[in-house]
Write a structure and sequence with these properties.
By secondary structure, the chain is an alpha/beta fold. The chain contains 32 helices and eight strands. The model has no long low-confidence stretch (mean pLDDT about 85).
Length: about 700
């Protein structure tokens, strides 16, 4: 008979220990697994059935200790304390057990059942580390199961052991801090037990230890207890005795006691073979981390990624553009009513098709970045850029959120939770929107390919580089004005190099690409249809008279034109007349005076508005406004040709618009994330600051472009 009670398992562990790999292997989910600490910035959940049990598994953010400082560590600690999972599985990095066991001891002190996964067992064996997991399990009183999460090895055994431990009500053995410290712990335990509700909510022993360690969260939790004064007195007595007896701060002593306990357990259960030579990771790092070679190599790799993206993506992009052009021709030749044809062509094909044509570029770019991330190189890049980031007022760990910004600003902003300094965290959040996300890429490619065809990849790369420079300069300014404060030192372990699995990299690429395509099929489709609607209605008054007048004017001005050419020109003039009389035209005319100094017309203003929803919509809106697909193989000009021939466009305007897109506020989803992570004050600041900066910089680019003859 199936047990109807849901068994809740919490996966805990140090950053980069492989929790998410174990989670994926257990649940079949495919959440991001990056070879970099801090990838999981919020808890992830999944449910499975196993041996007739309903099991709920929660993957917590990585944390080195239950004394939490960064927001991702707070998420992990609060879940364990407040939600009280039935059992905890601590995922340990087998190649660095002493450091990983520090968290395990703190989890043991919670008084909950605990099982340990000796993850990356294969890497430990390669390094000559022999772990007697049976002896280690006996010493610590915690069942230990060797696993290789990335390949799913040992995962079934881990699940079986976890269930057996829970069913057997097996609790781990508590570490001992020595008779004198244990006496102080016992005094505090007894005082905490006087409040029965509090003793039920929290482990009195764990809370007593945290009070001795001067954990600020523990002290907040005892406020309001009837005997809070007595608890504080006993805590201060423990502090005084430990400081007097050991000559060190109680936090340091408790930490040393734990590591002493760990060292004793590890010395018996772990043996190391003497390996000849140096490891592959060390050999690679001698070159990659070289002070004179490392940084130029990093920039060369980024440059190579962009060159590869455009070199390989050119052909599939052209193929997709042609397919959408052919689809338009099919609709034009159909017997559908004119209004339906207009909706399908100008509302959907020109809108959604224009965005989907850039999917190959997204795939290639994400593949390269995911590959680098999974190898462990991105962690090296964080160290290489730390000195520079520190100089402008950011933390070396800000590098990862900034890198994630190339994909999407939402997870990038959430990844700032790994930063412990609130001011550095806010500064990083405000810098991320200047990084060119995947949604900006289609705009760059369209405008650069249209107005700078011989140097398109260079122009696009220049926009990406400009975003990085702007984020640096903006951060430098903010950290010396509204976000003054010292930068925290950067401490982070370098993971070993690992060969990414093709399955893992492809899943990362699919996850990002599917998110992009899903947006095209929902938000972009809806806004494209809306843009078609507001550009097509209300129907302009006197359209027939205007058409006749336009035909006469064109025929008189260019008497040698064929009937087809006259009809095409007249159609363009009529569409322009309709646009100016439509809802979109009226909105554009209202905002045009603000944008006119830059050189932007009302059409560009209309195209920018849906860009606040999603940047990709600028391309689809331009397709609707100019009534043209990206490719010109269908009947009529392509969007590139239409923009190139339009009197209100030029290389100067295109470059100024790319700068405006780069700097303007991010999409609504990103703004909502900024609000959630930083609050209303910084959301308002971000919007006002980026709008003002976008106008000023695009104006300067336009003026400078005009002075250089870019008309």
């Amino acid at each position: 008979m199936q047990d109807t009670k849901v068994l809740t398992i919490a996966l805990a562990g140090n950053p980069n220990a492989g929790k998410t790999s174990i989670f994926n292997a257990l649940t079949g989910a495919h959440h991001k697994v990056g070879n970099y600490p801090g990838v999981t910035v919020e808890k992830r959940e999944g449910s499975i059935e196993f041996q007739g049990r309903n099991i709920h598994i929660v993957d917590l953010p990585g944390t080195y200790s239950l004394t939490a400082y960064a927001l991702d560590e707070v998420v992990a600690r609060d879940f364990v304390l407040n939600e009280k999972p039935d059992i905890i599985v601590d995922v340990l990095d087998s190649t660095n057990l002493e450091r990983n066991l520090y968290l395990l001891l703190q989890l043991i002190e919670l008084g909950l059942p605990v099982v340990a996964a000796l993850n990356m067992a294969d890497e430990a064996a390669e390094k000559g580390i022999i772990i007697n997991h049976t002896l280690l399990s006996k010493t610590l009183g915690v069942p230990m199961v060797p696993t290789v999460g990335s390949r799913g090895e040992g995962v079934r055994e881990l699940l079986e052991t976890t269930i057996a431990t829970f069913d057997g009500h097996t609790l781990p053995r508590m570490p001992n801090y020595g008779a004198d410290i244990e006496a102080h712990i016992k005094t505090l335990e007894d005082l905490l037990k006087e409040d029965q509700a509090f003793a039920t909510a929290y482990s009195p022993r764990w809370m007593a230890i945290k009070l001795i360690e001067k954990d600020p969260d523990a002290h907040r939790r005892i406020e309001g207890l009837g005997n809070a004064a007595d608890i504080q007195t006993a805590t201060e007595a423990a502090w005084h005795w430990i400081t007097l007896h050991y000559g060190k701060d109680p936090e340091i002593i408790m930490s040393e006691q734990r590591y002493g306990y760990i060292h004793g357990a590890v010395s018996e259960a772990i043996h190391r073979k003497r390996l000849r030579g140096i490891s592959l990771t060390e050999r690679i790092d001698r070159f990659v981390m070289h002070p004179f070679v490392g940084t130029p190599l990093f920039f060369f790799i980024i440059w190579a990624i962009f060159k590869l993206t455009f070199a390989l993506g050119e052909y599939p992009v052209a193929w997709l553009e042609q397919r959408f052009g052919n689809l338009e021709a099919v609709v034009q030749r159909s017997t559908l009513p004119a209004v339906i044809q207009d909706l399908l062509i100008n509302g959907i094909i020109h809108g959604v098709g224009g965005v989907l044509s850039f999917v190959p570029l997204i795939v290639i770019l994400f593949f390269c970045i995911s590959f680098l991330e999974d190898t462990g190189y991105i962690a090296r890049a964080a160290f290489l850029t730390d000195r520079f980031l520190h100089a402008i007022g950011l933390h070396g760990q800000s590098f990862m959120p900034l890198m994630l910004g190339f994909g999407c600003s939402v997870p990038a902003i959430m990844a700032t939770r790994t930063l412990k300094s609130p001011k550095e965290r806010i500064a990083t959040i405000l810098a991320i929107p200047f990084i060119s996300c995947g949604g900006k890429l289609p705009i760059y490619v369209l405008l650069a390919g249209t107005f700078f065809p011989s140097n398109a990849s260079t122009v696009v790369m220049l926009m990406y580089a400009s975003g990085l420079v702007l984020s640096v300069l903006s951060t430098f300014f903010l950290r010396r004005t509204v976000l003054k404060g010292a930068s925290m030192p950067f401490v982070m372990e370098l993971p070993p190099y690992r060969m990414p699995t093709l399955k893992g990299v492809l899943w990362h690429v699919w996850e990002k690409t599917w998110s992009y395509m899903r947006k095209a099929g929902t938000i972009i489709l809806a806004v494209s249809v809306l843009m078609w609607l507001i550009t097509s209605y209300p129907k302009a008054a006197g359209i027939d008279a205007f058409t006749a007048s336009a035909r006469s004017s064109v025929t008189a001005a260019q008497p040698g034109l064929s009937d087809a050419a006259v009809s095409a020109k007249v159609e363009g003039l009529v569409r322009q007349y309709q646009l100016e009389q439509s809802i979109a035209g009226r909105i554009g005319k209202i905002i045009e005076p603000v944008l006119a100094p830059i050189g932007f017309t009302w059409k560009i203003g209309v195209a920018l508005l849906p860009g606040l929803t999603a940047k990709e919509l600028v391309v689809s809106t331009l397709g609707v406004l100019y009534g043209a697909p990206l490719d010109g193989d269908s009947e009529g000009p392509s969007l590139r040709q239409s923009l190139r021939e339009a009197p209100d466009w030029s290389p100067r305007i295109a470059l100024a618009l790319m700068v405006f897109i780069l700097v303007m506020p991010p999409c609504f989803a990103s703004l909502a994330t900024i609000r959630a992570e930083a609050g209303d004050k910084w959301l308002a600041f971000q919007v006002a600051y980026s709008l003002a900066l976008a106008w000023v910089l695009s104006f300067l680019v336009s003026v400078l472009g005009g002075a250089l003859g870019m008309v």
